[in-house]
Amino acid sequence: MRLISATILIVVPLFGTIASATDESAPDDNGIAFVLIHPPFLDSYNCSEHWDGQLPYLGDSLGADCTIGKLVEDDGRLWVRDYKTSGRENSDWYGYGAEVLAPCDCTIAKIRINPDENLPGQLGKPPASSITFERPDKTLILLAHVKDIQVSAGDQVEAGDVVASVGNNGYSRQPHVHIGAWRGEAALQIRFDQKRMNSAAK
Q1: Which among 22, 74, 89, 144 could bridge 178 via Cys, Cβ 3.0 to 4.6 Å?
Q2: For residue 201, is pLDDT > 50?
Q3: Which residues of 149-175 are buried (b: 16+ CB within 10 A; e: fewer)?
Q4: pTM for this structure?
């Protein structure tokens, strides 16, 4: 089996009609507004999304769970995989320990640490280690299940700054990063600024 270097970005498509990329505050036809953020990784990744009503809590509602994958060749066939061998160890996962990037030009509002690391396939206990970012417009963005946090509450960061690495802690079964966003009492759908990703990857 051979690992192929790739810069393919794989993101699950957003459901439904969304507002234009220049107007975050405008909700779509279903009343859901979105937030445009810097992609969480420089590596290829995919995200699954929490649909409206699946999880009721701010930070979880409309959030995205993002995992880094690699393009792998096995006996002449190519596909994206999240882990090598059995995936039973955190180190098997291609994203484990990868750099996590700040989503915005913003202030670190809160840091939470959970020192207990989960084994893949075994659900841990909340809360997860997390970083909460606050934009000037009071939008809050959460990155959870991270480790090796490199920032402190009150720090100013720019979009794309390295702030942590991918972990597996809290209510999690595998190495990944959960992203949630809200403004006031309204959850926001996550949308990634792929132009920023293109610039950062060069």
Answers
A1: 144
A2: yes
A3: bebeeebebebbbebbbbbbbbbbebb
A4: 0.85
